[in-house]
């Protein structure tokens, strides 16, 4: 019989774990750091989604962490965020093998896995009699909060920037590339509980471009309406949300598909820097699925 090595993280330990433990490996830990911060924020505000955060309570200093985000809709995978300090890979492998907290029947998506943990995750999936598949390789782009807060930009006279509302969710979701693994509840929670900004037409109030701070605490759903591309609205809205996040003490970051050259160029143009090697997002599938 396996003994569970992980315990659910209480809010009382969150600040120490993030600021005194994870920050030792900054910005390598940025995804886990803001996933945890966003989880407790959403828990306090009764989000539609459910977070479970686990750590090794008797060895908190090694930074080992598993976070699981479950959504209310059927048919969508749990999102799993995994992290440990460099040098702890063997311990992490034992922990991943022993823990009973991951629901493998829900075919989880491991989000932005540190490359040094990729083989461990894939081996664990195989040991469960399942199949691993690369969803995409994420390029992490980030900016320090103080630098983001100093950004400046001008808003053209024919548009204005405003908060997104729940009335925009259906339209945004209909154009979202990742609606295959992210349900509409993600946008519902994001618009209500996090930062979500749009560029709107002064003429008729039409939504022309948008971006949000998503369920993992980083930027998501950055998009310009297909009819209004090439006018600088993507850069404008990215500058706006980046500055707001910086003013709130948040270091903005995004996980961008390495094949999305437009977004990668846009983040670079605004001043984001690329960090580390690509971070694979790994899907779990039944062994007989796909080619």
From TrEMBL:
Domain of life of the source: Eukaryota
Domain N-acetyltransferase: 159-291
Stored CDD domains: NAT_SF (cd04301)
GO molecular function terms listed in the Swiss-Prot or TrEMBL record: acyltransferase activity, transferring groups other than amino-acyl groups
Protein's name according to its UniProt entry: N-acetyltransferase domain-containing protein
Species the sequence originates in: Macrosiphum euphorbiae (potato aphid)
């Amino acid at each position: 019989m396996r003994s569970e090595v992980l315990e659910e993280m209480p809010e009382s330990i969150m600040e120490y774990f993030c600021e005194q433990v994870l920050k030792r490996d900054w910005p390598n830990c940025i995804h886990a750091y803001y996933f945890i911060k966003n989880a407790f924020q959403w828990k306090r505000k009764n989000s539609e989604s459910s977070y479970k955060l686990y750590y090794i309570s008797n060895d908190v200093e090694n930074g080992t962490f598993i976070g699981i985000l479950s959504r209310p809709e059927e048919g969508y995978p749990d999102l799993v965020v995994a992290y440990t300090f460099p040098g702890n890979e063997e311990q992490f492998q034992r922990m991943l093998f022993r823990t009973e907290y991951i629901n493998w029947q829900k075919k989880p998506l491991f989000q932005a896995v540190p490359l040094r943990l990729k083989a461990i995750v894939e081996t664990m999936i195989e040991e469960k009699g399942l199949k691993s598949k690369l969803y995409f390789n994420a390029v992490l782009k980030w900016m320090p909060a103080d630098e983001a807060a100093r950004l400046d930009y001008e808003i053209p006279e024919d548009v204005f920037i405003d908060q997104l509302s729940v009335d925009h969710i259906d339209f945004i979701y209909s154009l979202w590339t990742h609606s295959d693994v992210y349900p509409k509840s993600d946008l519902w929670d994001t618009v209500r509980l996090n930062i979500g900004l749009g560029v709107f037409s002064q003429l008729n109030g039409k939504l022309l471009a948008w971006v949000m701070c998503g369920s993992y605490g980083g930027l998501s759903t950055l998009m310009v309406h297909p009819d209004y591309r090439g006018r600088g609205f993507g850069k404008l809205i990215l500058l706006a949300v980046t500055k707001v996040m910086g003013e709130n003490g948040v270091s903005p970051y995004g996980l961008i598909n390495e094949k999305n050259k437009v977004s990668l160029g846009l983040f670079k143009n605004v001043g984001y820097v690329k960090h580390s090697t690509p971070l694979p997002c790994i899907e779990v599938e039944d062994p007989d699925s796909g080619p």
